[in-house]
Amino acid sequence: MNICIIGTGYVGLPTGVGFAELGNKVTCVDLIEEKIAALKAGRITLFEDGLEELFRKNAENGSLRFTTRLGEGVSNAEIVIIAVGTPPHPETKEADMRYISAAAAQVAEHLSGYTVVAIKSTVPIGAGDDAEQLIREKNPAADFDLISMPEFLREGFAVHDFFNPDRVVIGANNGRARKIVDALYDTYKQKPQILYTSRRSAELIKYASNAFLAVKIHYINEIANLCEKVGANVYEVARGMGLDSRIGAKFLSPGPGYGGSCFPKDTNALAFIAKQANVDLSIAQAAIKGNGERKIEMANRITAALKGVKDPVVAVLGLAFKGGTDDVRESPAIEIVSELLKRGLRIRAHDPEAINSAKAVLGDRIEYAQDAYGAAKEADLLAVLTEWEEFKSISLKELRMRTKIIVDLRKVFDKQIAIADGFTYIGIGE
Ligand code: NAD
To answer: Which domains are present in the chain?
Structure first.
């Protein structure tokens, strides 16, 4: 099948690579010349576990092509997948639809023959209607169906999730696109479960799912606060809750709050949509407010632990919004570091993959270290802000710190071992 993917970001690139690996001919389009030049030259532009190998293989065997010229991809495609960004408006926080509109307008110019146009980006309810109308206005003769194909992959696990989706949701207002969608997913070794819904329902499924997960994270963070006051242990509580199949164990890890390019943006966008519709989404609203405050509370925890330490240096482990990615968008780690900088603290940070992306935000306001041992050298407090798996193998005994305090916001270290190694250990909810 000929597929065109518009946008080669954290969603578009793994999707393009994945469909190429399944035997399709994929053309990936992006506006950014440097990105396309790098991809054409065989240099991957983002970090995702397992992606680089599949990218190289499919680029080399010709299944995967890259271009800045949208027409080259769209005119031959049976399906065009739009995966451009929908960032929040700086004030209202509603999803900014300018990239979707621009992409749809460009697609309209190049459609030839029956084509399915699928919006994979996370968009407000009714955005599919608008994009369809825009294409019809620009190209009244175009033969196409516009469907919603929301993406549920987790950054850091994008390759795994592409090949093993829990479900595929397709929002289509008529059955004509179904043949092409079915053929697309027939290329999977094991065809995923496809849920067909109306276009608007599919658009809302994405927002409702992300907001639900954000609420779950905020809930366990509030339970962690309660554990600290009443002498319970949140990890035991979360385990006990998670064993209930109605609740499930996932997203019950307490921490410094949710971040990333999706949860904060999508909860805010959903709240905006609800407000416009005059519907009270009080639970999502509480999560948004509480999650904002959470990062300040965590910065307070770090500053309180340093009371009495003269000219303290904070070693930070982790800058990415979560382990397994180089993405620092809305990263709680970056927000906490920024707050600590405001308070005049000196910071030396290490992250296995996100130093370059963090430098683009924090610049030289902090120092960067090649590894955890370098970050911790002569520091007074070790703050664990991102849950990278490899942090678990750090030997606390070998850290040459000036003052031995750990604030572990990700439960990377064992409290008893840290105490036995002479550290003051401050965690969450225990
Ligand atoms: P991104 O910013 O990483 O990538 C978007 C890409 O689209 C950029 O490279 C940009 O240059 C390109 N682009 C914009 N307009 C274009 C145009 N007209 N033609 C060609 N290229 C264009 O964004 P992302 O993280 O991949 O997210 C994309 C969408 O998917 C968003 O709506 C997001 O909410 C949603 N989503 C993201 C994730 C995630 O984990 N990142 C998961 C599910 C859904």
So the answer is: 2-197 (3.40.50.720), 290-426 (3.40.50.720)
Q: Positive or negative, the Cα torsion across 48, 51, 56, 59?
A: negative
Q: Cβ–Cβ contacts within 10 Å for residue 291, how many?
A: 22
For the CA of 35, the closest atom of ligand 1 is: 9
308 CA distance to ligand 1 middle (Å): 46
- Give pLDDT tens digits for 177-199: 999 999 999 999 999 999 999 99
Residue in the block written with tokens 């008529």: 174
Q: What are the tens digits of pLDDT across the range 125-166? A: 999 999 999 999 999 999 999 999 999 999 999 999 999 999
CA dist list (Å): 309 to 314, 339, 365, 405: 11, 18, 21, 11
Annotated catalytic residues are 262
Pocket lining: 6 vs ligand 1, CB cutoff 6 Å: yes
CA of 85 to the centre of ligand 1 (A): 3
Would you state the structure tokens that stand for residue 103, as one six-digit string?
């992409």
Give me ligand 1 centre to Cα 84, in Å: 3
Give the span between the Cα atoms of 418 and 383, in whole angstroms.
13
- Residue 85 Cβ inside 6 Å of ligand 1? The answer reads yes
Q: Is the CB of 48 under 6 A from ligand 1?
A: no
Which pTM was predicted? 0.94
Instruction: Give the three-class secondary structure for 39.
Output: helix
